[in-house]
Design a protein that fits this description.
The protein folds into 3 domains: 35-163, Fumarate Reductase Iron-sulfur Protein, Chain B, domain 2 (Orthogonal Bundle); 179-322, Up-down Bundle (Glutathione S-transferase Yfyf (Class Pi), Chain A, domain 2); 327-447, 3-Layer(aba) Sandwich (Rossmann fold). The protein is 53% helix and 6% strand. It has helices at residues 6-18, 23-26, 35-48, 52-60, 66-70, 72-77, 89-98, 103-108, 117-129, 136-140, 147-160, 166-178, 186-200, 219-223, 227-239, 255-259, 262-279, 290-298, 300-304, 315-325, 353-361, 392-407, 419-431, 441-447; strands at 213-215, 243-244, 283-286, 311-314, 336-340, 365-366, 413-416, 438-440. The strands form 2 sheets. A 4-stranded parallel sheet has the order 2-1-3-4. Strands 6-5-7-8 form a 4-stranded parallel sheet, with helices on both faces. Helix 3 runs antiparallel to helix 11 and helix 22 (392-407) crosses helix 23. The longest helix is centred in the middle third of the chain and has 18 residues, at 262-279. It is globular and about 75 Å long. The chain starts with 5 loop residues before the first helix and ends in a 6-residue tail after the last helix. Residues 51-81, 121-150 form the 4Fe-4S ferredoxin-type domain. One of its GO terms (molecular function) is 4 iron, 4 sulfur cluster binding. InterPro entries: 4Fe4S_Fe-S-bd, 4Fe4S_Fe_S_CS, Cys_rich_dom, Helical_ferredxn. It holds the Pfam family CCG.
């Protein structure tokens, strides 16, 4: 583990740059734009995000290096470029030159040069390939700089400059055009609901005109883990809830947010919001998906431009409340469990206690990992990283560290409440011969419901 500060790290950067290939050889660029147009669009959209809060963040960094050691990508690579605060350097450079209190001097004496298209192409990797916006750097920063949010802002400008990795852009565009990034169209969704209902002998509610609860699913669950649909239905039916899936508002994932296109992010959010309002829903339940929680729970009202007329809960929060109220009771598993906290639900979302209440009700002994709960180490696949093939080598290295941490607990059962994390565990586990399975918290609950006496 390196003990360099950010100041020392920055001194290494120029020599690092000399040893890598030219950015043009390493980065994908979609769209037909000249270099001048790319820079203009990037700077224009950087400027749109400049405000009091972001300005405070730009001025606050004391170059202590704490964020470097909080980042799983930096810890895995040791590359100073992977220091979290360095990932928003073009954003900071544009701010200092164009909008900061000393902008006149920075510009006049060229103390901060103009951002170049080659810099933007290089930073594409840093903003997309090596950052999940997990917020661990934000939590540990002594100056409370929300680096994860700044990365999200920087992605807005990168999208408009046509500098989104092509795999991420492709799935985002597909989600905007078809309603799903993985081909889970309304018809596919409906077919898989019918299949799961028949296979698990559970009543499915689809396109009800009125319901108190709207249930969402993510593409990963629909296509890879469809049992989650049956599990959700089983629990809600057991509770006697008025609920429904809706084919006009079911997709919880929001690749508009991950790629940096706020217009597409809004479109994806409004499909859900409109469907919930249409049926008079009092509650929208989000599936086991981390970034979906961020997109609707914490950013949905901003997208709609008004307070949401319904409550939004992650499925783990819903289950915890149901257990506390006595609406459901669970059989005891009697096993030891290690729980992987999804960053966007726990650290970024504030729902860290919910899954632990559920696990307690399941009668398991929780074996917390060395960095668990709010300080949980990210699996490295969120934020769209898992879609980017060139990021695979480092992603597997990040996951290797995660495997070692979970293995050290000695737990019998591995559990999480995010299907994207689960997919990353499955993919990396096969690649690295982990030999263990990551289980769904939701499915554990559905499988261990205690029937009313």
């Amino acid at each position: 583990m390196s003990n360099k500060t950010v100041t020392e790290i920055e001194l290494d950067l120029e020599s690092k740059r000399l040893s890598v290939r030219k950015p043009e050889e390493r980065f994908d660029v979609q769209g037909e734009m000249s270099n001048e147009q790319r820079i203009e669009k990037a700077m224009l959209n950087f400027a749109k995000d400049f405000g009091r809060v972001s300005a405070t963040y730009m001025e606050a960094c004391i170059h202590c290096g704490a964020c470097a050691h909080a980042c799983p990508f930096y810890e895995a690579s040791g590359d100073p470029r992977h220091t979290p605060i360095w990932k928003i350097e073009p954003f900071k450079q544009a701010y200092k030159r164009e909008a900061g209190p000393l902008a006149f001097f920075y510009k006049t004496f060229n103390l901060k040069p103009k951002v170049t298209v080659n810099e933007l192409k290089e930073w594409q990797e840093l903003l997309y390939d090596t950052c999940t916006m997990c917020g661990r750097c934000t939590l540990i920063c002594p100056m409370s700089i929300d680096i994860a949010t700044l990365v999200g802002m920087a992605r807005h400008a990168m999208f408009h400059a046509g500098l989104v990795p092509h795999e991420l852009y492709t799935v985002t565009e597909k989600a905007y055009r078809e309603g799903s990034p993985l081909g889970a169209t309304p018809q596919v969704f409906e077919d898989r609901i019918e299949w799961m209902g028949d296979e698990h002998e559970v009543d499915m509610h689809v396109d009800e005109d009125q319901a108190d609860v709207l249930v969402l699913m993510s593409s990963i669950e629909i296509q890879k883990y469809p049992e989650s649909m049956a599990a959700t239905a089983k629990i809600l039916n057991h509770m006697g809830k008025s609920w429904t899936f809706r084919t006009d508002g079911y997709e919880a994932t929001n690749f508009g947010m991950l790629s940096g296109n706020t217009a597409w992010q809004k479109d994806m959010s409004m499909k859900i919001i409109n469907a919930a309002e249409k049926i008079g829903a009092k509650l929208v339940i989000l599936p086991e998906c981390g970034h979906a929680y961020q997109a609707l729970r914490w950013q949905g009202a901003n997208m709609a431009g008004k307070p949401l007329p319904f409550k939004v809960q992650h499925i783990s929060e819903f289950l915890a409340e149901a257990l506390e109220s006595g609406a459901i009771k669970l059989k005891k598993l009697g096993k030891t469990v290690a729980f992987h906290d999804p960053c966007q639900v726990s650290r970024r979302g504030g729902a860290t206690p919910a899954p632990r209440k559920v696990l307690e009700a399941l009668g398991v002994e929780l074996k917390e990992s060395e960095s668990g709960g709010d300080m949980n180490v990210c699996c490295g696949g969120g934020g769209g990283v898992i879609t980017i093939h060139r990021a695979d080598t480092l992603r597997y290295k990040v996951m290797g560290a995660k495997f070692r941490q979970l293995d050290a607990t000695g737990a019998e059962l591995m559990v999480t409440s995010c299907s994207n994390c689960r997919q990353n565990f499955d993919d990396s586990g096969e690649k690295l011969n982990w030999g263990k399975e990551m289980n769904s918290l939701l499915e554990l609950v559905a499988d261990n419901l205690e029937e009313a006496k």
